[in-house]
Amino acid sequence: MARVLNLLMLLLTAGTVFAARNKQSRPAEKDFEQESSDQCPEPYGYFADVEQCDKYYECKDGQITEKLCPDGMVFNDFSTQDEKCDLPFNIDCTTRPKLQTPQPSQNCPRKHGYFAHEEANVCDKFYYCTDGKFNLIVCPDGLVYNEKVGICSWPDEAKKKGCSSRDVFQFDCPKVNESVGLTHPRYPDPEDCQYFYVCIDGVTPRRNGCKLGQAFDERTSKCDWARKIPECADWYKDRLTDEQLDALENPPTPRPRPTGPINRRKPARKPVVHEDD
Ligand SMILES: *[C@@H]1O[C@H](CO)[C@@H](O)[C@H](O)[C@H]1NC(C)=O
């Protein structure tokens, strides 16, 4: 009797071992692809879901926990050591394009991120949302919201529908031959002395501005004090007094820098590069 029982035990054990072997012998990669939702590819780390960009798994001692990034953010899968969700701009979600159901609020289609204005023809405004609360951001003059990178760009770079250079500027670059085109010729904005257009390769207009008090001088293709340019001499009359213009043209000479410790304050981020020449 004992012998029969022993044999039975042996058979059972062998069966178990065989089953375990069988499981182990499956290729690891296949395991990950097919069973990542209920099995850790490694005992420790953070692993992207194979289908959903904002879903990931935490593995601790082989124990798996499913997790979700905040709405609007996606899992950053650059390292399995880091638990990190980011805005989607630098994360490649092409192979795992699914996302959680959006939780819209106010003007935010999702809780976090940068979003185009709801009106397609509004090109230079966009929303920055955190936790469902929005800030309306206005691009600097001449720029439009670029949906691909979440910042303001030239219209020809942003390629936003309804927001091409032509739509935004109502300015056509005059036809020039190739050699002139290569110089990126500049033309005054017919509506505004302070602004001018740079025609990239002679074809694509970008609107750029001179600083306050200055105007674009067609003869030199540069910015200069408006009062020195005959066609624009009175341009600031309604906005600035002669004294204010004097002050702009002759700023008080800055005092020599103190030789004490250097002020290490971070410089404020400049929103736009205006021509200073
Ligand atoms: C291009 O146009 C400019 C100005 O109209 C002219 O001076 C130049 O000779 C032209 N160049 C060529 C290669 O046609």
TrEMBL record:
Q: Using the UniProt annotation, give all residue ranges assigned to the region (Disordered).
A: 243-277
What GO annotations for molecular function exist for this entry?
Answer: chitin binding
Protein's UniProt keywords contain Disulfide bond: yes
InterPro entries in the cross-refs: Chitin-bd_dom, Chitin-bd_dom_sf, Chitin_bind-dev_reg
The record, for Pfam families, names:
CBM_14
GO CC annotations on file: extracellular region
**The entry's keywords:** Chitin-binding, Disulfide bond, Glycoprotein, Repeat, Signal
Q: Which domain of life is it from?
A: Eukaryota
What residue stretches are annotated with the Chitin-binding type-2 domain?
Answer: 37-95, 105-165, 170-234
What is the annotated signal peptide range for this record?
Answer: 1-19
Return the SUPFAM superfamilies for the record: Invertebrate chitin-binding proteins
Output the PANTHER family linked to this UniProt entry: BCDNA.GH02976 (PTHR23301:SF104), CHITIN BINDING PERITROPHIN-A (PTHR23301)
What is the name of this protein? Chitin-binding type-2 domain-containing protein
Q: Which organism is it from?
A: Photinus pyralis
Q: List the lineage, top down.
A: Eukaryota, Metazoa, Ecdysozoa, Arthropoda, Hexapoda
